[in-house]
Amino acid sequence: MKQIIETLKSYKHAIIWTVCYVCVMWAILYFMFNFDLFSLHQWHHLLRAELHGFAGFVFGILMLAALPLYIASTTLIIRTKKPLITIRFPQIKIPTFLKSLPQSADSPVTTETPTKSETPSLGPDAENTPAELPPDLPDELRVAFIRARHKVGTSQTSIFNSIDKKSTIPPAAPQPEISDTESDSLPIPLDFDLDIPDDIPAFTDTPTFTEINFDAPETTDETPLAFDIPAPDFDTTVDNSEIINHLTTTGTDFTTRQELVITPTYVITTHSDPRFWVTDTDNWFASGAVRPSPIKRLKSISESENLTPVLYLAATNIMDLEKLQPEWESSGIRIITSVSDL
Q: Which has the closest alpha carbon to 239: 217, 197, 271, 215?
């Protein structure tokens, strides 16, 4: 029996919520839809009935949501062990004039026993002698003033912080007197004239002015600082061996001029160094190296000798090659990726 009572106490909030929930659902169904929750006849009739209209829709939704809502709310109450809804009643404050009512003449007069005061009692001389208080002293400072006047409740100092009056500071050792023999060892100079060099400028009270010319360049003996930045390597080597071997095999006449291979109809150059992947109008760049732009070189030779410029791309890792190739071809340069395209 004791175990059953303890179980009911542990689930007290869930049981109270179940009772309240059933009562509220019965009241809603009975007064709004005229349905008795505890009537078996009406439940049997509901199983064969058809719901129509807005009232039937609301009644059906309410019946379907009643059980899941109860299960969810009860589970929450059991887990938290707290009521789902806490009703706080307002606190009524009793006015102060009702708390302290005057005692009637018939009521016995009760004398309160004096309690121990928080402030320590003064000495016998201090209690008999009235303390002279300043006339403009506030009421809040009267007790503190009396305590300070009679030295009541003074703080006790530690023995480590207190100064021993018996201890005396040892006197300083007397300075030894300088004998005549020691004074004779330090010769006194005969004069205090110092050798001042002649190149020291003489300071006069009269100010002097120098001419300042802002147009003249400033000349200083100091050399400008030179930053130790290595200059990039200007690479001009081009490998045209594949083009030369192909032209030799096919029996085509050609001549070489620096990095160019010139035939009767074409002027050809090769880009085979994969380091140079950043292109510009005048130069192509790599990490720490620079080479002249082959596009600019081909255009100048083709216009002067009326030849078709051809660029053989043995290395195609050029940045934005898909955008640059149509631009080069539109300017009249033929782009090939194999020597057989000649």
A: 271
